[in-house]
Amino acid sequence: MTYVVADNCIKCKYMDCVEVCPVDCFYEGENTLVIHPDECIDCGVCEPECPAEAILPDTDPEAEKWLEMNTKYAEIWPNITEQGQPPADADEFNGVTGKYEKFFSPNPGGQEAEKKVG
Ligand code: SF4
Ligand code: SF4
């Protein structure tokens, strides 16, 4: 079992979750995070910390479609252990539906991405 990051993290990316995870199993994309399903110890402390309510246990019927995406990108994106600066317009996108189809970026986030941009 694991927890997964779902659609509503996209473009919100508040990152409260990374501060509380005891095993540092969050990975950072350009505009969302994912959880590494093999590293998550299923403690559940991140779920209530997410202001976007974007973290689900994989027992949730909604979680299945996100498990594949979390598994795939946790292998590719860099690990994140400290809360960074959320996007300036994060609150405007909190609760918007269909964000994966409209906005998901497969690019990695974090310092490596900033280095490439800069
Ligand atoms: S707290 Fe929620 S919205 Fe913020 S990065 Fe974590 S999963 Fe995404
Ligand atoms: S459930 Fe626990 S181990 Fe899994 S991502 Fe959340 S805080 Fe980390």
Automatic annotation (TrEMBL):
4Fe-4S ferredoxin-type domain span: 1-30, 31-60
Q: Which Pfam families match?
A: DUF3470, Fer4
> Entry's SUPFAM superfamilies?
4Fe-4S ferredoxins (SSF54862)
Query: Membrane: present as a keyword of the record?
Result: no
Write out the entry's keywords from A to Z: 3Fe-4S, 4Fe-4S, Electron transport, Iron, Iron-sulfur, Metal-binding, Repeat, Transport
Cofactor(s) this protein cannot do without: [3Fe-4S] cluster; [4Fe-4S] cluster
The superkingdom of the source organism is: Bacteria
The UniProt GO MF terms for this protein read: 3 iron, 4 sulfur cluster binding; 4 iron, 4 sulfur cluster binding; electron transfer activity; metal ion binding
Stated role = Ferredoxins are iron-sulfur proteins that transfer electrons in a wide variety of metabolic reactions.
| Protein name as annotated | Ferredoxin
Native organism: Kiloniella spongiae
